[in-house]
Amino acid sequence: MSDIIFKIDGREVAAQPGETILQAAARIGVEIPTLCYNQKISRTTSCFVCVVKDCKTGKFLPSCSACPAPGQEIDASSDEVKDMRRTALSLLVSEHTGDCEAPCTLACPAHATVEEYVRAGRNGDFKKALEIIKQRIPLPMSVGRVCPRFCERDCRRNIGGKPVSINDVKRLSADMYYDTYMEDLPALNGKRVAIVGAGPAGLSAAYYLRLQGVSSFLFEQMPEAGGMLRYGIPEFRLPKDTLRKELAHFGKMGGIEIRTGQTMGKDFTIEQLEQDFDAVILAVGSWASSSMRIDGEEAAQKGIQWLGDIAGKNWKNCPNPGRTIVVGGGNTAIDCARTALRLGGDVTIVYRRTRNEMPAQAIEVDEAMEEGVKFEFLTAPAALTKNADGSLALSCARMQLGEPDASGRRSPVLIPGSEFKLLADTVISAIGQRTVVPEGFAASKRGFEISADDFTCSGRKKVFAAGDCVSGPATVVEALAAGRKAALSVVDFLNGVPHKAPFEFNVSRGHWRSLAKEDLVYIRQVSDAERIQPEYIPLEERKTTFHELYPTFTPEQVSGEADRCIECSCTGKHDCLLKKHSTAYGVNPDAYKGAKPISAVDVRHKYIIHDKQKCIRCGTCVKVCSEIINKSLLGMMKRGFHTMVDTTFGQGLPDYCVDCGACVKECPTGALDWKKKE
Ligand SMILES: Cc1cc2nc3c(=O)[nH]c(=O)nc-3n(C[C@H](O)[C@H](O)[C@H](O)COP(=O)(O)OP(=O)(O)OC[C@H]3O[C@@H](n4cnc5c(N)ncnc54)[C@H](O)[C@@H]3O)c2cc1C
Ligand code: SF4
Ligand code: SF4
Ligand code: SF4
Ligand code: FES
Tell me, what DSSP letter sits at residue 446? Predict the structure, then answer.
């Protein structure tokens, strides 16, 4: 029989009789995605993801089963066809329930693959854990100590218990291997980037540029690098020697040079950097203290400057601040209070809302209380005066909570006639920070940050910006994430390609608060031990020295803790075709809302997990078992929406299935899978 001549995307193709459009397209290199198609079995044609268009009739055809007709013109790649594929995928996803990624990983602002490094820690392989961590966290010793633990807030072990102590895996892995660890580095490619500010954002940008072969030169105003890690966060939370050890790694990598004592606007200008370097990244943080807007404010110390001053000296030589009032409710306020306490001060924090509204981390408020810091909640400062004896008087008023403001927190309302005075030797204002927007740069709408769209500064082609100076005061891990993104943006700029943040499709079972214990899926027996608790140094030592609050846990303790992890992500995430195509086609998992089939995950088999909620009902497994293996252990049960792949009478797969596993191998999603993870 003679060949069938037809066209795909305007190109003439000769197809053999019986050949499908999909097969002919593959031969000329036109890629068409498939999901239910499997060459080993008879066609199922159930997903429609392989759809193409017959241009003459306007009909859409499943290319995996449709054979071409002579003279036919097939559109396999237009936006219209891609839209149809996206719709087909969206409909499948609308019935789909699972967790492509673990909630801890999704909650990490840097998207460190938490589940994977926790698993490495469980297996006692802390070097591997560090390798995984460093893919997204270039300062793990610091983050392992000061991170607010976004991942733990979303950990599924919160259901009926306490989250896995994830950050301690990071801390231990980094502490164990930092001296010897070195990444595989590419040769330098001759491109040079200037970075202003050697805080977490600037250092992270330098790190990821180096991983791409780009050298960087960091210009830092202070005598040492580290930004707020060095001059904001006090020694008892992050020892300076630990930070120095961590920062030394950047020097060892080669291709990263830190020039300290270099202030932009004084020692050099941005224009000079623009001229001398291929690109510039601003990572200058938020170093200006916000004003309390009260009379006599000039008699108060500015929180971050006060902390920076102490951090620049040996704490043993710093004076006792005496009766100290710290105004504010954030991390800076708590750090000022705990620092003043350690220097011998009698410390009170004045905050205008209640403890519930405090932006500071709860654990730090608890620790401060334990150490003896006193709190005056629902109290606002009104004026500061200096007494004849040199002491200070802070006039205050009591507040009550009113309606929520723009931040969502209930705003404080003054109680008339409630004025009173607090006496002090030192008053520290720690109510917030903002960025000094450099001259010639546009400010954000609020006016407190540099305006940067996708990390590029408005009106400056080769200047990028990242970290607190763009986001406003945030956290170390967020600054690291921003530094990485800015670096990737710069690399694209240097290569002359437009930067596009990659899209990763993800479905989620939902936040742990919306789930019950029965919703948790176990692929192995996990430890039911309580979460590990740190062993603090004695309280007296805490109150009188800047010694670190508690030592790093031992490898045995951390492995035991990691054994509490349920390993929430889908076993099939690395080779799931539904995820792969949905990522490629930018599918929004919430595009169509509809009922989802509800069915318990079958984990009865020792080695195979059958999650019917992830099944796209392609029928592949049923045909593989009957047509190839000749067993017919699986079948399509029920009708319509309730159709489901199941075993006879739902008795589960027999043990001997482990010898074959053909259905597991061919299932295009994680619906039938091995109960094991790498
Ligand atoms: C007291 C305090 C406690 C904190 N506690 C925590 C915590 O527990 N956990 C947490 O995750 N985050 C915490 N943070 C926030 C965190 O430290 C910051 O979000 C993070 O450091 C921001 O990183 P960055 O690189 O954007 O800015 P920064 O760390 O501020 O670094 C900016 C760098 O730019 C330099 N620079 C500024 N202007 C110039 C100039 N003109 N020329 C040259 N160099 C310049 C600065 O000296 C600095 O080194 C805390 C912050 C403070 C102030
Ligand atoms: S089966 Fe695929 S799409 Fe579904 S949760 Fe698993 S990886 Fe994600
Ligand atoms: S149980 Fe493990 S995988 Fe699940 S959210 Fe917690 S740390 Fe992540
Ligand atoms: S379980 Fe069977 S029907 Fe369901 S997606 Fe996997 S192969 Fe297809
Ligand atoms: S209908 Fe063709 S791959 Fe599913």
Answer: T
